[in-house]
Amino acid sequence: MGQIRFASGAVLRPAQAQLLVEGRPAQLGGRALEVLCALAQNPGELVTKRELMDRVWPDVVVEENNLQVQISALRRLLGPAAIITVAGRGYRLVTEPDSDASSQQPQGAPSGQERRPTLSAATEADAAAKTTAGTTAAITAAMAPAIPLLEREDALQALAQAMDSAMQNRGTVCLVYGEAGIGKSSLCNSFLLRLQGVRVLRGGCEALFSPRPLGPVYDFVGQLDTAARGLIGLADARIELFAQILNGLERQPSVLLLEDLHWADAATLDLARYLGRRIQRAPALLVLTYRDDELSDEHPLRLVLGDLQQGVVRVPLSPLSRAAVEELARQAGRSAEGILATTGGNPFYVTELLEAGGLPATVRDAVRARVARQPAAVRALLELASTAPGRIEHWVVERLVDPDGSAVEDALSSGLLLTDGDSLRFRHELARRAVEQSIATYQLRRLHARMLDCLLANPQAAVPPARLVHHAKSAGRSADVLMYAPRAAEEATRRGAHREAAALYESALAAGGQLPKPERAAMLEACAAERLTANQVAGSLACYREALQIWQDLGRTLDQGRALARMSRASWYAGLGQDCERFAGEAEALLSSYPGSREYLEALAETSRVAMLASRYMEAIEIGSRGLALAEQRGDERFVASLLNSIGTSRFATGDIAQGQALLERSLAISIRNRDDESTPRAYINLICQLVESRMYGRAEELFEESAKAFFVRNDVDIWDIYSGGWRARTHFERGRWSQAQADAIQVLSRNYAAGSATIRFPSLWVMARLKVARADPDAARALQEVSDLAAATNELQRLVPAATARCESLWLLRASAEPQLEQITAVFEACKEARAHAYLDELGYWLWLHGVIVDGLDPCSPRGLQIAGRWREAAEAWSRIGCPLEQGQALLQGDAAATAHVRSIFENLGATAYLARAS
């Protein structure tokens, strides 16, 4: 192909991939030059958008507006008439006849033969040197977004450095955050356009009433391998899907961009956490964007961010400066007066006000002004599109408002909408909301109804039920909400998105005014179960109470008993020990007339569990054994696992450690085999609890990592993962890793908010209280009181004993008398003897002995028993073997001068200020 000349005087040399402007090589990015060369292969002929994108971005999924950016850059250099848009199809290159080529071509040379350059070698080399030495083209025209990207050099550099690290198999997580409209997407677009030879997976979350589980994954599912694509539609296959996605990232350099995580469903947040914890071994960059100003203390994204503390690159985006706002105004040919004050430097707001041509009172008015200037057909399209957070498919638009595509073309040209080929979306969610809020209420309801009818009328379109619920709620069509919300909730449950499932059940319940009572009660129980798993304990109890009342009104005994058993479980999480006992007892009594029923089996399992938690171990074993026989007779492995758990925990606690551990391990294996999201985490937790309380840290620490995977992948992260984190904090504390203990405890307490479970806060609260006591923290008394109050509310030895020992420790360190509290603490000790709880007995007995109480029933060969017998040296050696430095120091304090001198170094290493004072 020869040289091509344009009306502007620019000259393209396709063979050299070079564009000359005024005789010098143009500063043009590689993507733009590839677009130009593709058009130049057939000058004057149509080249479709798809053909251009397949050539320029063969291995990268990008939005169509990226192609528009390159076309705009070329038009700035070649002139606006050089590239003609063929509406809805593609582009056509317009060139000038090359008269110089005709006159200088040697006679007889074939037409089209490349002529020699007119620049001298020296001139051309000089021009190339100037191009290489150019210092102002940090972002070339081809790489610039449609909106000029100003004051983002540091952010781009941070992303580039993270990508460089990833390319060396040191995968990195980048958090890009800021307020709505701050330019997160523009920054990511600019960054992605700079990449070469890197696969890009990009997915975004949508502002639906209840997001679709794993919604962003569907955006790039076509780029995943066959194994991963086959898993995305399967129930209970999340961990396998996540592993396949990670495996794909490990095989080739990649960027995975998950946008707008403030709208993410729980399953998507689990994916972010899963990859974030493991991406370090992949040549991949995980970029997460979100609005930090929309994250409340209880927002689930905060839990994910808390788990991604190490090795994370943070890219906060700040508003534009006055200079940047003035530069944007200058480029737009507008006055900058009042723009900064009105927008606060928010890039989206600035751009909208400049586009509006004036200074409306609000940005919403600016968007509306732009919409008002559009033709009627475009306005109708924009209003319809505003009802669909995220995207609206082309086929929907064609069917409802734009059969010939002309309105779509005009909307794209205006910049109000973007397209990815199959669907349309607003350039920014703020713009969508501005349009949506401008529509009269009755008209908006009609639009949502039309959208719903259109989606339902096309059975070939695989529309997620959560999306149908969104339109049905907005259209006020309660019958459709009632029909599709339970289906959407079931899908969310299968994906592990329990929070979204609860919200969908709530939508159905709110819409089901005339729902038959049995159906309403069943739905209330389903909602309660999802709320409990998502750590919404108070809401769970409220649903169970309403369901129970309905079953009682209907006189349905089996259903009443089931509801009572489940209320017992929810009451335990709420820290309501007496209610827990009462509901379990009522359930068993009510269902005793139905001894072969599944409901009675559930009541037995709950009663055994409650007895175990209350340290009535023999009772738990007796009831559990009866239930186990029934469960095995029925072949119900879920209840087999649950009952083995209670029996095994009880045997472990009473000193039958080998048998107890074997039963717990068997319970765990059955639960994992059956992919039971309730029994599996409980089996892990109870096994961990018993191991830690018996100071068997080796196996416990093996289980922490193993269980963490199951907790946050199989469940909705919150309730079991938080509880596990508290026991991990206790393990760190007892093994002398106090900084890690404090970090884990603080993380748990920050994640488990007020509406969540009170009971699962206890291990972390206890660790914090023990740390404050040992460090002589002024806040120790308040922390101890909080621990004591929670323990009293549960009325369980597993909390009463640690609270009592912490209280005794504090009084002993302060050299204060325990007399006012001895009666209460001694009563707890006697309860330990009655329950045969050996670990509790030894620990609490030691602290009572320190306060002058004569105790019996302890194991004389245990380290605490040795201390009471005055065999401090043997006790210190035992604590050293176990790996408990604080307890080793306590034993050495009983020794001679040499032991006391040694103990100071132990307490100094721990930072145990109060113990150092006691040792002096």
Question: How are the SSEs ordered, and which strands pair?
Answer:
Blueprint (H helix, E strand, L loop, with lengths): L3 E2 L5 E3 L4 E4 L2 E2 L4 H11 L5 E3 H8 L7 H15 L4 E4 L3 E4 L5 H6 L16 H12 L20 H15 L4 E6 L6 H10 L5 E6 L10 H6 L5 H6 L6 H14 L2 E6 L6 H13 L5 E7 L9 H8 L4 E5 L5 H11 L6 H5 L3 H10 L6 H10 L3 H10 L6 E2 H7 L5 H9 L2 E3 L3 E4 L2 H10 L2 H16 L8 H11 L2 H17 L3 H14 L5 H17 L3 H18 L2 H17 L3 H15 L6 H16 L3 H18 L2 H17 L3 H17 L5 H15 L3 H18 L3 H17 L3 H14 L10 H13 L5 H15 L2 H17 L5 H17 L2 H13 L12 H6 L3 H11 L2 H8 L4 H14 L2 H7 L1
Parallel strand pairs: 8-11, 8-12, 9-10, 10-11
Antiparallel strand pairs: 1-2, 2-3, 3-4, 5-7, 6-7, 13-15, 14-15
Helix pairs in contact: 1-2, 1-3, 6-7, 11-12, 13-15, 15-16, 16-20, 17-19, 21-22, 22-23, 23-24, 24-25, 25-26, 26-27, 27-28, 27-29, 28-29, 29-30, 29-31, 30-31, 31-32, 31-33, 32-33, 33-34, 33-35, 34-35, 35-36, 35-37, 36-37, 37-38, 37-39, 38-39, 39-40, 39-41, 40-41, 43-44, 44-45, 45-46
